[in-house]
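Postdoc handover notes: sequence design on the structure in folder B. Input C-alpha coordinates:
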Protein backbone atom coordinates (compact mmCIF):
# COMPACT_ATOMS: atom_id res chain seq x y z
CA UNK A 1 0.00 0.00 0.00
CA UNK A 2 1.05 3.56 0.18
CA UNK A 3 4.32 5.27 1.13
CA UNK A 4 4.50 9.06 0.91
CA UNK A 5 7.00 10.31 -1.64
CA UNK A 6 7.98 13.38 0.38
CA UNK A 7 8.87 12.65 3.97
CA UNK A 8 8.59 16.30 4.86
CA UNK A 9 5.03 16.35 3.58
CA UNK A 10 4.24 13.23 5.59
CA UNK A 11 5.64 14.76 8.74
CA UNK A 12 3.68 17.94 8.23
CA UNK A 13 0.50 16.03 7.52
CA UNK A 14 1.00 13.79 10.54
CA UNK A 15 1.47 16.82 12.77
CA UNK A 16 -1.61 18.53 11.39
CA UNK A 17 -3.74 15.43 11.74
CA UNK A 18 -2.49 14.78 15.24
CA UNK A 19 -3.42 18.28 16.28
CA UNK A 20 -6.76 18.07 14.51
CA UNK A 21 -7.72 14.75 16.01
CA UNK A 22 -6.61 15.81 19.46
CA UNK A 23 -8.66 18.98 19.17
CA UNK A 24 -11.70 16.90 18.24
CA UNK A 25 -11.31 14.93 21.48
CA UNK A 26 -11.55 11.60 19.65
CA UNK A 27 -13.00 8.72 21.62
CA UNK A 28 -9.59 7.10 21.85
CA UNK A 29 -7.98 10.06 23.60
CA UNK A 30 -7.17 8.81 27.12
CA UNK A 31 -8.60 12.04 28.53
CA UNK A 32 -11.93 11.67 26.77
CA UNK A 33 -12.48 8.09 25.64
CA UNK A 34 -12.03 6.09 28.80
CA UNK A 35 -14.41 6.04 31.71
CA UNK A 36 -15.24 3.81 34.66
CA UNK A 37 -12.03 1.95 35.33
CA UNK A 38 -10.52 2.21 31.86
CA UNK A 39 -13.49 0.79 29.98
CA UNK A 40 -14.51 2.44 26.71
CA UNK A 41 -17.21 5.06 27.15
CA UNK A 42 -20.02 3.78 24.92
CA UNK A 43 -21.61 7.23 24.86
CA UNK A 44 -18.63 8.55 22.88
CA UNK A 45 -18.56 8.33 19.07
CA UNK A 46 -16.49 5.51 17.63
CA UNK A 47 -13.89 7.15 15.38
CA UNK A 48 -12.65 5.03 12.47
CA UNK A 49 -9.93 6.00 9.98
CA UNK A 50 -10.61 4.90 6.41
CA UNK A 51 -9.55 5.30 2.81
CA UNK A 52 -12.13 7.37 0.89
CA UNK A 53 -13.37 4.63 -1.43
CA UNK A 54 -14.73 2.07 -0.90
CA UNK A 55 -13.94 1.98 2.83
CA UNK A 56 -15.38 5.34 3.90
CA UNK A 57 -18.34 4.80 1.56
CA UNK A 58 -19.16 1.52 3.30
CA UNK A 59 -18.69 3.03 6.75
CA UNK A 60 -20.87 6.00 5.89
CA UNK A 61 -23.59 3.62 4.73
CA UNK A 62 -23.40 1.94 8.14
CA UNK A 63 -23.38 5.33 9.87
CA UNK A 64 -26.38 6.67 7.94
CA UNK A 65 -28.52 3.53 7.66
CA UNK A 66 -27.65 1.03 10.38
CA UNK A 67 -25.72 2.46 13.33
CA UNK A 68 -28.58 4.24 15.11
CA UNK A 69 -30.54 1.00 15.43
CA UNK A 70 -27.62 -0.50 17.35
CA UNK A 71 -27.12 2.60 19.50
CA UNK A 72 -23.74 3.22 17.83
CA UNK A 73 -22.38 6.72 17.24
CA UNK A 74 -19.95 6.42 14.35
CA UNK A 75 -17.51 9.03 13.04
CA UNK A 76 -15.51 8.41 9.85
CA UNK A 77 -12.12 10.09 9.32
CA UNK A 78 -10.85 9.88 5.74
CA UNK A 79 -7.13 9.40 5.06
CA UNK A 80 -5.55 9.34 1.61
CA UNK A 81 -2.40 7.44 2.54
CA UNK A 82 -1.57 4.00 3.93
CA UNK A 83 0.62 5.07 6.88
CA UNK A 84 -1.31 7.52 9.05
CA UNK A 85 -4.38 5.30 9.70
CA UNK A 86 -2.21 2.75 11.51
CA UNK A 87 -0.09 5.28 13.39
CA UNK A 88 -3.23 7.16 14.47
CA UNK A 89 -4.74 3.86 15.67
CA UNK A 90 -1.57 2.92 17.55
CA UNK A 91 -1.36 6.33 19.21
CA UNK A 92 -5.03 6.37 20.20
CA UNK A 93 -6.03 9.30 17.98
CA UNK A 94 -8.70 7.10 16.39
CA UNK A 95 -10.44 3.99 17.68
CA UNK A 96 -9.64 1.82 14.70
CA UNK A 97 -9.21 1.76 10.96
CA UNK A 98 -10.56 0.15 7.85
CA UNK A 99 -8.30 0.30 4.79
CA UNK A 100 -5.85 -2.59 4.67
CA UNK A 101 -5.26 -6.31 4.26
CA UNK A 102 -3.32 -8.78 6.43
CA UNK A 103 -0.03 -8.97 4.47
CA UNK A 104 0.24 -5.18 4.58
CA UNK A 105 -0.60 -4.97 8.30
CA UNK A 106 1.88 -7.71 9.20
CA UNK A 107 4.63 -5.88 7.31
CA UNK A 108 3.66 -2.52 8.84
CA UNK A 109 3.62 -3.84 12.42
CA UNK A 110 7.01 -5.48 11.94
CA UNK A 111 8.65 -2.38 10.51
CA UNK A 112 7.07 0.14 12.87
CA UNK A 113 6.77 -1.83 16.13
CA UNK A 114 3.03 -1.17 16.17
CA UNK A 115 0.35 -3.42 17.64
CA UNK A 116 -2.62 -3.11 15.31
CA UNK A 117 -4.72 -6.26 14.88
CA UNK A 118 -7.60 -7.26 12.57
CA UNK A 119 -11.12 -7.68 13.94
CA UNK A 120 -13.34 -8.74 11.04
CA UNK A 121 -12.97 -9.09 7.27
CA UNK A 122 -15.32 -6.97 5.17
CA UNK A 123 -14.44 -6.87 1.48
CA UNK A 124 -11.93 -7.63 -1.24
CA UNK A 125 -10.78 -5.18 -3.90
CA UNK A 126 -9.38 -7.32 -6.70
CA UNK A 127 -6.05 -5.90 -7.90
CA UNK A 128 -6.14 -5.31 -11.64
CA UNK A 129 -3.97 -4.70 -14.69
CA UNK A 130 -5.14 -1.69 -16.73
CA UNK A 131 -4.10 -0.01 -19.95
CA UNK A 132 -5.02 2.94 -22.15
CA UNK A 133 -2.85 1.62 -24.98
CA UNK A 134 -3.78 -2.04 -25.39
CA UNK A 135 -7.17 -3.70 -25.43
CA UNK A 136 -6.30 -7.23 -24.31
CA UNK A 137 -3.76 -9.11 -22.22
CA UNK A 138 -2.42 -10.75 -25.37
CA UNK A 139 -1.48 -7.32 -26.75
CA UNK A 140 1.21 -6.81 -24.09
CA UNK A 141 4.54 -7.45 -25.80
CA UNK A 142 8.29 -7.31 -25.17
CA UNK A 143 9.62 -3.77 -24.95
CA UNK A 144 6.54 -2.38 -23.24
CA UNK A 145 6.51 -0.88 -19.73
CA UNK A 146 4.27 -1.88 -16.82
CA UNK A 147 3.90 0.28 -13.70
CA UNK A 148 3.59 -1.49 -10.34
CA UNK A 149 3.10 -0.26 -6.75
CA UNK A 150 6.42 0.23 -4.97
CA UNK A 151 5.52 -0.85 -1.41
CA UNK A 152 6.49 -4.27 -0.14
CA UNK A 153 3.18 -6.11 -0.06
CA UNK A 154 1.46 -4.58 -3.06
CA UNK A 155 4.46 -4.93 -5.34
CA UNK A 156 4.60 -8.63 -4.48
CA UNK A 157 0.87 -8.91 -5.04
CA UNK A 158 1.20 -7.14 -8.42
CA UNK A 159 4.03 -9.41 -9.52
CA UNK A 160 2.03 -12.49 -8.53
CA UNK A 161 -0.85 -11.24 -10.69
CA UNK A 162 1.50 -10.79 -13.66
CA UNK A 163 3.06 -14.21 -13.09
CA UNK A 164 -0.36 -15.89 -12.82
CA UNK A 165 -1.14 -14.49 -16.27
CA UNK A 166 2.17 -15.60 -17.82
CA UNK A 167 3.56 -12.10 -18.34
CA UNK A 168 6.60 -12.87 -16.15
CA UNK A 169 8.17 -15.79 -14.32
CA UNK A 170 9.09 -15.56 -10.63
CA UNK A 171 11.46 -17.53 -8.43
CA UNK A 172 9.86 -20.50 -6.74
CA UNK A 173 8.38 -19.79 -3.31
CA UNK A 174 8.71 -15.99 -3.22
CA UNK A 175 5.01 -15.55 -2.46
CA UNK A 176 3.55 -12.16 -1.64
CA UNK A 177 6.96 -10.68 -0.78
CA UNK A 178 8.17 -10.92 -4.40
CA UNK A 179 10.37 -8.07 -5.67
CA UNK A 180 11.52 -7.09 -9.14
CA UNK A 181 14.79 -8.89 -8.37
CA UNK A 182 12.79 -12.11 -7.97
CA UNK A 183 11.70 -12.08 -11.61
CA UNK A 184 13.56 -14.84 -13.44
CA UNK A 185 12.08 -14.04 -16.85
CA UNK A 186 10.77 -10.55 -17.66
CA UNK A 187 9.84 -11.69 -21.16
CA UNK A 188 11.21 -8.44 -22.49
CA UNK A 189 9.04 -6.20 -20.33
CA UNK A 190 10.22 -3.12 -18.43
CA UNK A 191 8.87 -2.10 -15.03
CA UNK A 192 8.30 1.25 -13.36
CA UNK A 193 7.87 1.31 -9.58
CA UNK A 194 5.54 4.04 -8.27
CA UNK A 195 3.76 4.93 -5.06
CA UNK A 196 0.45 3.06 -5.15
CA UNK A 197 -1.72 6.19 -5.13
CA UNK A 198 0.13 7.71 -8.09
CA UNK A 199 -0.10 4.68 -10.38
CA UNK A 200 -3.51 5.65 -11.89
CA UNK A 201 -2.15 9.08 -12.85
CA UNK A 202 0.72 7.42 -14.71
CA UNK A 203 -1.54 5.11 -16.70
CA UNK A 204 -1.25 7.23 -19.84
CA UNK A 205 2.55 7.29 -19.61
CA UNK A 206 3.10 3.52 -19.55
CA UNK A 207 1.75 0.63 -21.59
CA UNK A 208 -0.06 -0.95 -18.64
CA UNK A 209 -0.27 -0.59 -14.86
CA UNK A 210 -1.23 -2.72 -11.88
CA UNK A 211 -3.59 -0.63 -9.75
CA UNK A 212 -5.07 -1.20 -6.29
CA UNK A 213 -8.85 -1.51 -6.32
CA UNK A 214 -9.58 1.55 -4.18
CA UNK A 215 -7.30 3.78 -6.24
CA UNK A 216 -8.86 2.44 -9.44
CA UNK A 217 -12.29 3.43 -8.15
CA UNK A 218 -11.04 6.90 -7.16
CA UNK A 219 -9.68 7.29 -10.72
CA UNK A 220 -13.15 6.47 -12.15
CA UNK A 221 -12.04 3.08 -13.40
CA UNK A 222 -14.51 0.21 -13.13
CA UNK A 223 -12.32 -2.79 -12.26
CA UNK A 224 -14.87 -5.42 -13.27
CA UNK A 225 -15.20 -3.79 -16.70
CA UNK A 226 -11.97 -1.88 -17.39
CA UNK A 227 -9.23 -4.22 -16.13
CA UNK A 228 -7.41 -6.43 -18.61
CA UNK A 229 -7.30 -8.99 -15.81
CA UNK A 230 -8.31 -9.06 -12.13
CA UNK A 231 -7.23 -11.15 -9.17
CA UNK A 232 -9.45 -14.09 -8.37
CA UNK A 233 -11.48 -13.71 -5.19
CA UNK A 234 -11.44 -17.37 -4.14
CA UNK A 235 -8.72 -18.11 -1.60
CA UNK A 236 -7.43 -14.54 -1.81
CA UNK A 237 -5.48 -13.41 1.31
CA UNK A 238 -6.07 -9.72 0.65
CA UNK A 239 -9.47 -9.14 2.26
CA UNK A 240 -9.72 -5.68 3.82
CA UNK A 241 -10.76 -5.56 7.47
CA UNK A 242 -11.69 -3.47 10.47
CA UNK A 243 -8.62 -3.17 12.72
CA UNK A 244 -7.86 -1.82 16.19
CA UNK A 245 -4.91 -1.51 18.55
CA UNK A 246 -4.41 -4.83 20.31
CA UNK A 247 -6.43 -4.86 23.52
CA UNK A 248 -9.38 -2.91 22.11
CA UNK A 249 -11.02 -5.80 20.24
CA UNK A 250 -13.73 -6.20 22.88
CA UNK A 251 -14.78 -2.55 23.00
CA UNK A 252 -18.58 -2.93 22.72
CA UNK A 253 -18.66 -0.22 20.06
CA UNK A 254 -16.13 -2.13 17.95
CA UNK A 255 -18.17 -5.30 18.35
CA UNK A 256 -21.30 -3.50 17.19
CA UNK A 257 -19.50 -2.09 14.16
CA UNK A 258 -18.00 -5.50 13.30
CA UNK A 259 -21.48 -7.05 13.38
CA UNK A 260 -22.91 -4.35 11.13
CA UNK A 261 -20.02 -4.56 8.65
CA UNK A 262 -20.77 -8.28 8.19
CA UNK A 263 -24.52 -7.80 7.88
CA UNK A 264 -26.80 -8.68 4.97
CA UNK A 265 -27.45 -4.97 4.50
CA UNK A 266 -23.77 -4.24 3.90
CA UNK A 267 -23.43 -7.26 1.61
CA UNK A 268 -26.29 -5.94 -0.52
CA UNK A 269 -24.84 -2.42 -0.52
CA UNK A 270 -21.43 -3.64 -1.72
CA UNK A 271 -22.85 -5.88 -4.42
CA UNK A 272 -25.25 -3.26 -5.78
CA UNK A 273 -22.90 -0.27 -5.62
CA UNK A 274 -19.69 -1.85 -6.94
CA UNK A 275 -20.98 -4.47 -9.37
CA UNK A 276 -18.07 -6.88 -8.84
CA UNK A 277 -15.34 -4.25 -8.56
CA UNK A 278 -15.50 -4.71 -4.78
CA UNK A 279 -16.82 -7.99 -3.38
CA UNK A 280 -17.97 -8.99 0.14
CA UNK A 281 -15.41 -11.11 2.00
CA UNK A 282 -16.94 -11.48 5.45
CA UNK A 283 -15.58 -13.48 8.34
CA UNK A 284 -12.73 -13.83 10.81
CA UNK A 285 -9.32 -12.77 9.46
CA UNK A 286 -6.59 -15.38 9.25
CA UNK A 287 -4.24 -15.33 12.22
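Designed sequence:
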Amino acid sequence: MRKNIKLTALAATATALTLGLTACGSSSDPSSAKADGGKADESKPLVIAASPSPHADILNFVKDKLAAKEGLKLEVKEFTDYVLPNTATEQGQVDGNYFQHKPYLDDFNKKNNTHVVPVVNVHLEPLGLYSKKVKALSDIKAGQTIAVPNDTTNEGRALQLLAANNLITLKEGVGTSAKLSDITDKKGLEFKELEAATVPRALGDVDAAVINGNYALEANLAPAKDALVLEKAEGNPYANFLAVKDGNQNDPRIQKLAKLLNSDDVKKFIEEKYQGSVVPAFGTPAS
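Context for whoever picks this up: Residues 66 and 111 are 36 Å apart (CA to CA). Don't rerun without checking with the PI first.
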